[in-house]
Amino acid sequence: MPEPWIHVSTPAKLNVRLKVMGRRPDGYHDLMSIMVPVGLYDRMDLRVTPHNGIKISCRGLPAPADETNLACRAARAFFSKTGIDHGVLIELTKNIPVAAGLGGGSSDAACVLKVLNQYYSSPLPAMELANLALGLGADVPFFLEERPCIARGIGEILEPILNWPEFWYIIVMPPVQVPTSWVYGSLNAPLSDRSSELELTNEAYQYIIEHLKKDPFIIGPLLDNDLERITAGRFPLIVRIKTVLTEAGAEGALMSGSGPSVFGVFQSREKALQVQAALADSGLGELFLAKGLTGSPGFDI
After folding, report:
1. pLDDT value, residue 24
2. In CATH terms, is domain 168-291 a member of 3.30.70.890?
3. Would you please indicate which residues are annotated as catalytic (active-site) residues?
């Protein structure tokens, strides 16, 4: 009797704030970010097998259907770390745009780690699972949390935000391709004074904390992305999309991650739907409506 299929929805993320604090000796950048999961989902169907093969099939948006897929790499890392001599079949329905600053691949990888760890009765404690996730990519640990967080370091130091408002987001994916490596490679030289870098990091953190305490909470002043000037400098459409969203009534608009996706923030689903309909024929790119998430939906076995 084959094992049952496990059905999971894996969310996208938005960087509501992304500040680059400096460059590390290993080439990564220290960040200060607010990351929020949103209800734009990939669909993953997984089935554990008694043999040690890892196979993936993909439909929907284009994604690699081989061992280079981050979901496959996650499964291989899990079995290698735990010494479990099994395998897994993965059927991925890709709905989150690829290379868009939305973290779809990282979300898929985190999903595989969580599902397998739960299936085998948690052979990896939370810290070990987080370290395994970090080895796959800087955004993967966030998707283990799957709730609004302040992210520090390269993204692995996560502090949940317990009172993040339930905003709605319109995400616009313009028809351009932005290599993440090019964006980060185009940043200014790293700070030479480590003490100055730490001071700036503390200031950036305190700014977020103080703003989150304000009542009423206004999201506009938090919307900032140090990578936006680089991507938008090459693709002016980014700025145009932000302008259109704010003029249409968004609380604010920002590019997510290294782009090119841009999102607008809305207080209500009704307003977001209204703006989505108004922009349907704008030619700005593909439009997605997503609700901000505050907890994990869990697994359907």
Report:
1. 80
2. yes
3. 13, 139
